[in-house]
Amino acid sequence: MGKDIIVLDALTYEYRKEDEEQPVKALDGVSLSVAEGSFTAVLGKNGSGKSTLAKNINALLLPSGGAVYVDGFNTADEAHVWEIRQRAGMVFQNPDNQLVSAIVEDDVAFGPENLGVATEEIKLRIERSLKSVGMYEFRKKGPHMLSGGQKQRVAIAGVIAMRPKCVIFDEPTAMLDPKGREEVMDVIRMLHGEGVTIVLITHFMEEAVHADRVVILDDGRVALDGTPEEVFLEMEAIREMALDAPLVVELADRLRRRGWDVPPVIKMEEMVEYLCR
Description:
CATH architecture: 3-Layer(aba) Sandwich
Structural class: alpha/beta
Shape: globular
CATH topology: Rossmann fold
Oligomer: single chain
Distance between the termini: 34 Å
Radius of gyration: 20 Å
Largest sheet: 6 strands, mixed
CATH class: Alpha Beta
């Protein structure tokens, strides 16, 4: 792992509801550091602050208290917004909200064009980005002709065409069917394998087992933080937060309670290997 590319220093974010006088704290003093090249999954029930955290990293929201640093730049410094968003790209839950052009390759070109990248370099980036997500053959099609998973892969191509050091995925599979979810997770794992820092906001526990680190938010605070093996062994704490553990972890916990000496498995293949032994 490299240096810390993202640093959250006592990050607090407040917003006001129309019918309430007192502000609501979506994030309450969150301090985290994300190492360059790492894969961090952020979990939590609805309203825990996950998406607010993601938008603060990308400077779409600015802290009410504390600070956020991306590659050394303070997100509150308006002079560096473009540098921040070039380094920390963001993929949203609904790809339709991120696709802006009528042709796939034009959509991928949009970001680099706004960064002032030379035309020939943009052409190379379009080709490389679409090939990396398996969508190059669709480059002349309209996004409206694609499936949900394909649209999300085009949205990811548009982000990686800007060559970010980090990509923040804000529940990118929430609106997809199982096939689309697997397509997007394959791309996320591929990007991580190439050295891109990944921050994955998700409510699917099975997606989090692929991360190096799992952070669980509860009521705007960090409740658990560690490797997937460490976090998912905290079954009681996870249940108290009204979250479900991955199926394999749940099965292992039930077997342990029945006297089996099950190791801390978090993936299906690990469980199969243990049971076969």
